Amino acid sequence: MTLSFRTGLAALLCSFVLFFAPAAQARDRDMTEDILYFTNKFRSSKGLKPLVLLDELSEQAQAHSKNMARKKVGFGHKGFDKRTAAIRSELGWGSAFAENVAYGHLDAEAVVNLWINSPGHRKNLLGDYTHIGIGIAEARDGSLYFTQIFLAK
């Protein structure tokens, strides 16, 4: 392998990453907005106020989704207390928290419907919360990992 071939290969790989990373970020942004929409649509159908998307919550939800997708933590709620403590520390407020997680080859509506049809997740969706954070990460097999963090003032 010559130096110019290696340089060309490296440039090609960088171009590949630079081309697809923004596309994945745009997909995640759109999916986050859709998850928020379907979550609030469900809450509205039950006479509840819409949740407000909060960046500090989404950052923690995103980190948890990435950690699950990369197998740094198992699928579930491990570390929830640490996530909520970090949020409370950063915001300086927060009286109650809840979390929903899911994974699979799902779109936004399907994942919200999955949570709606699960009693524990449904309880969180209908809780007396004011804010939400949403995180999405893709695993190597293409499945998506989802996290919702709910917060009450």
Automatic annotation (TrEMBL):
Keyword check for Transmembrane helix: no
Designated name of the protein: Uncharacterized protein YkwD
Domain of life per record: Bacteria
Lineage of source species: Bacteria, Pseudomonadati, Bacteroidota, Chitinophagia, Chitinophagales
UniProt KW Cell wall biogenesis/degradation keyword: no
Transmembrane segments: none
This protein's UniProt keywords: Signal
All residue ranges annotated as the SCP domain in the record: 37-150
Pfam families, sorted: CAP
Gene3D superfamilies found in the cross-reference section: CAP
UniProt signal peptide: 1-26
